[in-house]
Each structure stands twice: as C-alpha cells, then as structure tokens.
Amino acid sequence: MPSDKLNNHQAISGPTSPGPKIEQFALTGSNKPMVLSMVEKKLINLLSGDLGGSLRPYESLAQRLGLTEEKVLLMIDDMIKRRVIRRLGAVVVHQRSGFAANAMVVWDVAEDQLDDAGKTLAEKPFVSHCYHRPQAPGWPFNLYTMIHARTPEELAHMVDNMSSLIKASGHKVLTSLRELKKISPLYFPGAQK
Prior knowledge:
Layout: E1 5-6, E2 22-26, E3 33-37, H1 38-47, H2 57-65, H3 69-81, E4 101-108, H4 114-122, E5 127-132, E6 143-149, H5 152-165, E7 170-175
Antiparallel strand pairs: 1-5, 2-3, 4-6, 4-7, 5-6
Helix pairs in contact: 2-3
C-alpha cells in the first residue's frame, strides 16, 4: 500500500559531476532520460551498500573508484541537484545500538486532523517514520509511526505520551518480533562496485 504523505525528517547531503563514457538510463516514471556515466553508476551502487566504519566514508569510496574525495563529493552534489539521488541516510541497526523494544503504532485519526497529528508525532525524537496510508475495510488505521525504545516499559510510556498529544479514535501497537535482513538494491548490476 503506498504511503500518501511522509512526515519524517529526511537528511540530504552530498555532491557530483558526470564523468566519461556517458550512458542513457531512463528513469522510471519519467519521460526525461537520465544521463549517467559508468562512474556515477558505480558510485550509486557503492552508496547503496554498507559504507563501513570509516571516519571518512567518501574518501574510502573515492579510493575504490580511483578518484579523489573532493571529486566524489562533487559527483554526489551534482546527482542530488539533478535529482538522480533523492536522499542519503544512515540505516541504524536498532537492536545493536541498544533499542531492543521497537514497534509500529498505527492510529485512527480523523482526516481533518491527520496533517497536524502526523507533524506532532514526527517531531518526537523516538519516532523514525511517520506516514499516512488510506484506511481499509476492517482496518481503520490511517497514521503509521515507527518508534524505538530500550525496554518494553519505555515503549509503553512513549505510546501513552503520543496518545496524549493527538486526538485518535484508537491505536494499535504492533511490536517487532525480529529484525529481518535488510538488503540494499543494486541499481546497476552491470556497473561493478
């Protein structure tokens, strides 16, 4: 089910410029073809994977591509400006960082209060995702929030706090039972990392 609105804060950072050997790539859902070099495709593949624990991840990427760190940052910046890259963000493994109690809390919020409720909940530091989805038969919930706590007790306190901030006809706490392996997409299989 597609989300209608995202309310979470999304960080964007980076730089870029096209390199040699330009290839055509049609962006899905767009009439305008996107022009990407093989180096840009390789960089996108590298950015889509694990950047490791380096204090200078862009320098590490640059070394793998045979470029300077400055060139990699310029390339990323250019791809962001051209809207090839929408955002860059870290994926935190919550359990390893001490957040063992995680849950999606779904809310039944009146349509005329949905935007305000979404903005209010998205501002909470323990909310990583907040978005609207249409209600479905037998499923009255239309606002979805993902929250992270260290203990089940802390999680319950967060839910109580959230429910006091918005007017909702009801909510349901869907706790995470286990973390499934997350795999980043490989956008350009022909462009080896």
